Amino acid sequence: MAAPSVSTSASSQVRPGLEGVVATETKLSMVDGQNGVLIIAGYPIEEISGKVSIEELAMLLWTGHLPSKEEAPGIQKDLATYRALRPETLEILKTARNAPPIDALRMACATLSLDVSNPNDISPAGDLALAKRLLARFPTVIAAHSRLRSGHEPIAPRADLSLAANFLYMTFGVEPDPMAAKALETYWVTVSDHGMNASTFTARVIASTRSDMVSAVTGAVGALKGPLHGGAPGPVLDMLVDIKTAPKAEAWLRKEITEGRRIMGFGHRVYKVRDPRAEVLAKTASEMAGAHLQNTKLYALACAVEKTAIKVLEELKPGRNLKTNVEFYTALVLQSIGLQPDQFVSMFACGRAAGWCGHVMEQHAQDRLIRPQSLYVGPKGLKIDR
Ligand code: ACO
Question: Per CATH, which fold does 233-336 belong to?
């Protein structure tokens, strides 16, 4: 057999993980990792989070126009008409009742085009029709799954509540706590869009083939679930539970890092300073902590662990600039409203759905196939010897 030849030419062109590659233009969000700035369709994240609903934010991303105070109730009313799930989606959730919530969401998401006459309509009107269904139904899917896996029947959505308050109502079956609903809404707006992150890129790649909105978002859900992306906040909570008390943090963190494991909730491909979303969510977590004693203790522990982690990471990974990312305080906010750690990533998907849909619309309008190249480094000229 001939000796295989291996091509090494042009290897300098390869950018592992596409680090630093600018893949597209977008009007949806800007991430400045050096200065810790996040702009959502023109608005700094600190300006918009907590002030608008996720429904209003979605309209901003999908139409370029932030609804006025007078328009906002009509937007909520319109989106609320899409919340109920079809029997086919509920059947899938029953079958997937023991699957992790994010997997159940991925399976259910694929069915969300069943009630449009042409799911392959990628015109602006077709995209908008599907975007409304995706944003409105993701929380219904998660709430129904959470009821089914605990042996209860799903609760039908109410149209008189905001998307966030209705999610809490469908999950817990009681009148939603306004403070918890506000915290969830702030969280969803804070994570609604974030430049060319892995799941958004996935959605855009799928959309670039002129595939439809639901296919693109189903793929994005799959990309979000990994622990290096949206799957980190569940493990953040596990870490805090394992550390137990602030004095034990340093030894725990040192052991993890020296044994080659990563500290969840720290580090980011783009941010080299503290993620501005961590700032917003730390404030929300602190407000929720003030309301409940159990949350107060966890919040105090988290603040101490954050401080220690930054110090230990700087010492053991010098120069890598590993700072707090969005997932650290996400864990506290979602825990404080009564959700289970394995539901956290699916909550992320509910907020990010607004951004994914906006990017699919933008990609369909740009209509340019995303098709990079690869550098072949395998053998060539092999012969079949038989
Ligand atoms: N804990 C310990 N070490 C870390 C961490 C961390 N959280 N993050 C990076 N490092 C180390 C790496 O091991 C590597 O060390 P080395 O130079 O000795 O080999 C160095 O820092 C650089 O790491 P990269 O892998 O090049 O960083 P990258 O930009 O690819 O990683 C990522 C970004 C994936 C977010 C990473 O920081 C990480 O794994 N963090 C923990 C998981 C997490 O919190 N994910 C949520 C991210 S936010 C989001 O997606 C919404």
Answer: Cytochrome p450-Terp; domain 2 (1.10.230)
Angle (CA) 8-10-11 rounded to 5° is: 60
DSSP 361: H
Q: Does residue 268 carry a catalytic annotation?
A: yes
**Domain at 41-226+346-366: CATH code:** 1.10.580.10
Residue identifier of the C-alpha nearest atom 34 of ligand 1: 228
Q: Which of 190, 224, 322, 346 has most ligand 1 atoms within 8 Å of CB, for mutation?
A: 322
Question: Whole-structure pTM over 0.70, yes or no?
Answer: yes
Give tens-digit pLDDT for 320-360: 999 999 999 999 999 999 999 999 999 999 999 999 999 99
Query: Which residues on neighbouring strands pair with residue 324, listed in sequence order?
Result: 266
H helical segments located in the chain: 45-48, 54-63, 72-80, 87-95, 101-109, 124-149, 163-172, 178-190, 198-208, 213-224, 233-243, 249-258, 276-291, 293-316, 326-336, 344-366
CA of 267 from ligand 1 middle (Å) equals 5
